[in-house]
Design a protein that fits this description.
Blueprint (H helix, E strand, L loop, with lengths): L2 E5 L7 H12 L4 E3 L8 H13 L2 E6 L7 H17 L3 E7 L9 H5 L5 E3 L5 H11 L54 H12 L4 E5 L6 H14 L3 E6 L5 H4 L2 H16 L5 H4 L6 H16 L5 E6 L10 H14 L9 E7 L19 E4 L5 H10 L6 H11 L3 H12 L5 H6 L9 H10 L4 H13 L5 H9 L3 E4 L2 E4 L2 H11 L2
Parallel strand pairs: 1-2, 1-3, 3-4, 4-5, 6-9, 6-10, 7-8, 8-9
Antiparallel strand pairs: 11-12
């Protein structure tokens, strides 16, 4: 009897009906978990976390709805990272009449895996048999999906003046990193600061700071596109995709780091040659940058773009790593090839909380850009880009509810502009688990399930407008849940105060 976890997008079709039929078919021979068997709340989040870790298989249903679901993505990430260290669960992807290329980061987790395809109700019996075979030690039917014939929908870059009150033809999706040319990307002053730094300086370090879903990765993408357009050679590293076991082992990490840079810059990987000497890992890595990569690209500016850098704060050698980045920044003062070396770092955590010596930190030098919530005027602008689905009074109420949180604001306008929800429906169900923001809210609850100190700290903020532990405050702020106003620590917005106040109290 195998332990199976079923991951799917709730309350949509065909996701929920198919997931339910698979659950009913497998539960007689296996121990199958599906979230309909528990009530939503604090214990729900803990049950989900534990159920994934105890499972032998995670069946994930992929549809146009689920691939954008924060909760589904969180479940995939949990299964992927836990599976890397414990050998299970095995992930079994099922595409539900969905043949689009998967987007990052889901693509990184699932593209290498075999999958099953369901096109319509006639495929259900075959799918059940195929899954029964897979959980008995077999495999799914397909290895790769040929998406070459798929023509992506062109992006809409502007709204013609004559149609300013009509929604754009392509609303895109509110979730995930935004394409650099997206109509719905709102430029803030911080964007201009980052772009100006990249344009005006030869050899620059740019730090992009902000809580979750503020647009940090989207801004990094725009810098990458900007730099590429100016002829820079780009190396992009997302630390979220580096396995935990690698981050724990310096011998493996630094060598893998250099190999990845070689791959990104399309330079021959010579790490074997550089790792033969007696030098330490930091010295070998620095020499590799200077004597291999910069020498192989003698006429180009290099941009090392690093996303989710805060993952390195858990590493036992984090001080050495960040000191190395700071030394690369300082090396530019010597001139030569280092003057062509640029860095852009993205973090949602206050670095100085985890770096003892600020003189060895790369986060307080160069251009430091901190992203802010949307102002009322920027929400008005975003409403116009959606074709003005909301009246001025309704826009003000959305800003009051969400506090200008970029992702949630975009989600609210998207739902109204696409006709998926009305303004009254959004406001009435805003605090519900199955409401317009339910997936986002439940995802936060799920990620806090193993951290009682974060739940207690958030309740202290909600009840008393303070947080006694400064380290807990910075973790909650990095997650995007709280903010500091004067001497008070407050929930980020009304939505969070109401939802988490009810779910975490007691």
């Amino acid at each position: 009897m195998a332990k199976i976890f079923i991951s799917y997008k709730r309350n949509v079709s065909p996701d929920t009906p198919i997931a339910t039929m698979v659950f009913d078919a497998l539960r007689y021979d296996h121990d199958v978990f599906m979230d309909t068997t528990i009530q939503v709340g604090e214990k729900w989040a803990e049950r989900i976390q534990n159920a994934i870790k105890q499972s032998d298989y995670l069946i994930i249903f992929l549809s146009e709805n689920s691939v954008q679901s924060e909760m589904v993505i969180a479940e995939i990430e949990t299964a992927h990272h836990y599976g890397k260290t414990h050998g299970k669960p095995t992930i079994l992807p099922v595409r539900l009449a969905y043949t689009e290329p998967l987007v990052y980061p889901v693509s990184a987790y699932l593209n290498p895996l075999q999958w099953a395809l369901w096109n319509n109700e006639l495929d259900t019996p075959r799918l059940i048999i195929e899954l029964q075979h897979a959980v008995s030690g077999g495999s799914l039917s397909s290895k790769m999906l040929d998406t070459r014939a798929i023509t992506p929908t062109p992006a809409v870059n502007e709204i013609p003046t004559a149609f300013a009150n009509m929604p754009p033809r392509n609303l895109g999706a509110p979730e995930g990193t935004m394409p650099h040319q997206s109509l719905f990307y709102i430029e803030r002053d911080s964007d201009q600061d980052a772009s100006q730094a990249l344009h005006e300086m030869s050899g620059v370090t740019i730090t992009i700071k902000g809580s979750r879903q503020m647009g940090k990765s989207s801004l990094l993408n725009r810098l990458i596109d900007d730099g590429s357009g100016r002829g820079m050679k780009i190396a992009f590293i997302d630390f979220q995709m580096i396995e935990s076991s690698v981050i724990e082992n310096a011998d493996i990490f630094y060598r893998q780091f250099c190999s990845l840079l070689s791959f990104e810059l399309e330079v021959e990987d010579r790490t074997d040659e550089f790792w033969k000497g007696p030098l330490g890992q930091v010295q070998k890595t620095t020499n590799y940058i200077a004597r291999c990569l910069l020498k192989e690209l003698p006429d180009a500016q290099l941009l090392l773009a690093m996303d989710e850098v805060e993952r390195m704060f858990t590493s036992p050698f984090r001080s050495d790593f960040f000191s190395m980045l700071r030394s690369w920044h300082n090396n530019r003062a010597r001139g030569g090839d280092w003057a062509r070396f640029n860095m852009a770092l993205v973090t949602s955590t206050e670095p100085y909380q985890l770096i003892a010596d600020l003189n060895q930190s790369p986060f307080n030098v160069g251009a430091v850009v901190e992203l802010k919530d949307f102002t009322p005027a920027q929400v008005v602008d975003l409403n116009q880009r959606h074709g003005n689905p909301l009246s001025p009074e309704q826009v003000a109420r959305i800003h009051e509810l969400l506090g200008g949180q970029p992702y949630l604001t975009r989600k609210a306008l998207y739902l109204n502009a696409s006709g998926r929800a009305t303004f009254d429906g959004v406001m009435k169900n805003a605090f519900e688990d199955d409401g317009p923001f339910g997936d986002h809210l439940r995802n936060h609850l799920f990620r806090m399930s193993d951290y009682q100190e974060l739940k207690s700290g958030l309740m202290q903020v909600i009840k008393y407008q303070r947080c006694a532990d400064e380290h807990i405050f910075f973790r909650l702020r990095g997650a995007g849940l709280v903010k500091r106003v004067g001497n008070e620590v407050l929930p980020r917005n009304v939505l969070y105060a109401e939802y988490f106040g009810k779910r975490l109290d007691g």
